[in-house]
Each structure stands twice: as C-alpha cells, then as structure tokens.
C-alpha cells in the first residue's frame, strides 16, 4: 500500500512579495490605514498592481494627498527561457521620482526588482523581498509595518576619512612593533 505522502497532490508554491512599509508620520497621519497587514493577498499573475492615492485606480492605497493618484505599478512576469518569476516596477508619477535602491526612476521608467530592495518616494520607504514560487497563475503580496526607518538601517554609517587617507576607529588595532 502506498503511503499518504506518495499519493498526496504536490502543492504548487506561490511567489510572494513581502513589503515592509515605513513613513515618519505613519502613526499621526495613518497613511497606511487602507492596507491589510500581516495577511497574504493573492493576485492573478496577469494583473498590473498599482499603488497610489486613488482607490478607484489602485489596488493598494496610501491615504495621503502628497502621494500621486497612481504612484507606481508592479508587474509579475517569467524571465525569458526560464522557470523563474520576477517583478518589474514602473514609476507612474509625473511629479515624484521613485528610487529602487540607488536607481532613480523618472516618469514611465521601469526596472526589474532584485530579490530584495528598498523602494522610496517622498517620505515613503518600502523594503520589498521576493520569496520564489512555481505558480504561473498567481502571486501573493503581504504587508508589514516597520517602526523605524528602513533607509537608515540599509545605509551604512560612514566615518570621515582625514586627508592622510588613514581612517581612525574607536577600537584599538593591534600592530606589530617591527612594522
């Protein structure tokens, strides 16, 4: 008799975008109140997912008059001659530039999202992490809320280097006396 493991249907995994959001005045202004946190939302693979202020045009809304009606869009795709899936991000705001890590996107510019990146526009910060899957029918989006700035965590603290080119630190460095 075959055991249950051998006869069970194999479950197809779904690609998931985990999006951690931050705004410096998120508690005071409640700019993320239209987002559903800590739950996966399944979307069709062919759906263009728009983010912005207009709830009639965008699936994910920011409650903030300074956000464009349609700020940006994500598009799910399969890499050419590959089984791997990815996402493109396109800036749809004529007024606000979008940054993907250190790449600046003007209106209608788009790039492929890396596995993990920091997306910024205005005072908004979004850490986007892709968890791979095999389903070509759908993908999922899950939102988390950050308590502190995501940008400051990603930018390494830089110490000034004096003109001599020798950088000084607070920690002692062991040096051989013969050097």
UniProtKB/TrEMBL annotation:
Keywords: Cytoplasm. The keyword Cytoplasm applies. One of its GO terms (biological process) is positive regulation of canonical NF-kappaB signal transduction. It is found in: Cytoplasm. The keyword Phosphoprotein does not apply. One of its GO terms (cellular component) is cytoplasm. Its main location: cytoplasm. PANTHER family: TRAF-INTERACTING PROTEIN WITH FHA DOMAIN-CONTAINING PROTEIN A, TRAF-INTERACTING PROTEIN WITH FHA DOMAIN-CONTAINING PROTEIN A FAMILY MEMBER. This is TRAF-interacting protein with FHA domain-containing protein A.
